[in-house]
Amino acid sequence: MTFADLGLSDELLRAIEDSGYTVPTPIQASAIPSILMMRDMIGVAQTGTGKTASFVLPMIDILAQGRSRARMPRSLILEPTRELAAQVAENFEKYGKYHKLSMALLIGGVSMTDQLAALEKGVDVLIATPGRLMDLFGRGKIMLNGCSLLVIDEADRMLDMGFIPDIEEICTKLPKQRQTLLFSATMPAPIKRLADKFLDNPKMIEVARPATANVNIKQWVVPVAAAKKKERLRELLAADDVKTAIIFCNRKTTVRELNKTLQRDRYRSSEIHGDMEQSQRIAELDRFKAGDVNILVASDVAARGLDIKGVSHVFNYDAPWHPDDYVHRIGRTGRAGATGVAFTFVTPDDAENIANIEKLTGQKIDRFGGAPAAEKAADDEAPAPRRTARKPAAKAERAPPADIPAIDVERTAERAPRAPRAKRPPQAAVSPTPATAAAPAPAAPRPAPARPALADDGDDDGGWNGPLPDFLRAKIG
């Protein structure tokens, strides 16, 4: 099957041929004819399978007939992130170059003045994030009652980001008679309820099981200690044939720190995360696409919607917290039929995350290097516990017996000669016997010194037997 078999216009087929495509992907072959027939549709397909073109191509032909009016877009495409919105806009420019369709990009982080100016002229296609759209609608700058075609793209990501209430409100502002297309990589229960509420007898197209990873991507789990992540990353970047790579981190601070480390090591790396202005993010993406840098360190803001050709590797420097994010992260490689490699670093604390990923995707991810890699990671963690275990053993060898501490033995030996004297009765109770007279000198009472009688002392001193004070001696002399 070719694109010509799908009923597309000659102008559109020429633009597709200029882009280098000849054969539609399964989601495109299934979705395009149904969309051209103006049917509501639910498309479930893994990332990187051509979902964007599956609705952009038929929309161009549908909107080729008609005229736009000021502040009343004819069609609306909702995207969860600015990067995805910009990606869809690029597709419209690429495939619609032989059509005279007007388009506006309504996203945060850029000047609202230019966006309002485009809306005033009237647009055939409005690509927007829910937040900025609701903002302008609340100010009365846009009307949605002329919108006849609604596309909700990456609906599961909308759910994760908390946009479902906004989407429900937006749907109530649109005409009831419209065509609605919903695309998602997964189909959780809240998305199913949304589809049941706002889609009219939709056709269900599912070209792959929900949350199935691309079969063209070779996936590896790399067991590693947390402190060894940077070292292990450098080893893989040097050992594997890494042409272009995206490295995903869970935190923006990790993105900044890791990019600085790679740059110090002379790698051509850059970064993209949510704290950057939209103009900065676009500039860094352009550098990556142009080949000025070949390593892009990113947070999950870049996990979806980056259709960059030739990304050979994806590194999950941090294992993703949500299993769905894993599918979208590794989907940045292996796109459009190409092959790719995905490495996920796993510390002992990430065991539950990996188990959830394998449960969602229904496949066991191979461990990189097999048992030796796992043993190496275990050895990296082991030294501290072994040192702790040896210290008590060493103390036990030097310790004295538990019943008689060493210091008590010495003190007992010192007190042994004094034990009989402690039991001897008081001296007053002993009668003067020969045995007593023969007692050792220390036991005998100290003899009283001779004391002369004082001339003016008429009383006997009686019991005084102490030494004579000096002032008395002076008086006697």
Range of strand content = 5-15%
Main sheet?
A: 7 strands, parallel
Question: Tally the helices: what do you get?
Answer: 20
Per DSSP E runs of 2 or more residues, the count of β-strands stands at 14
Structural class: alpha/beta
Mean pLDDT: 79
What's the short version?
The chain has 477 residues and is an alpha/beta fold. The chain has helices at 10-18, 26-36, 51-63, 82-95, 112-121, 130-138, 155-160, 164-173, 189-198, 229-239, 252-264, 278-290, 323-330, 351-361, 371-381, 383-398, 406-415, 419-423, 434-437, 470-476, and strands at residues 41-44, 75-78, 103-106, 125-128, 149-152, 179-184, 203-206, 217-223, 245-248, 269-272, 295-298, 313-316, 340-346, 366-367.
Topology:
Layout: H1 10-18, H2 26-36, E1 41-44, H3 51-63, E2 75-78, H4 82-95, E3 103-106, H5 112-121, E4 125-128, H6 130-138, E5 149-152, H7 155-160, H8 164-173, E6 179-184, H9 189-198, E7 203-206, E8 217-223, H10 229-239, E9 245-248, H11 252-264, E10 269-272, H12 278-290, E11 295-298, E12 313-316, H13 323-330, E13 340-346, H14 351-361, E14 366-367, H15 371-381, H16 383-398, H17 406-415, H18 419-423, H19 434-437, H20 470-476
Parallel strand pairs: 1-6, 1-7, 2-4, 2-5, 3-4, 5-6, 8-13, 8-14, 9-11, 9-12, 10-11, 12-13
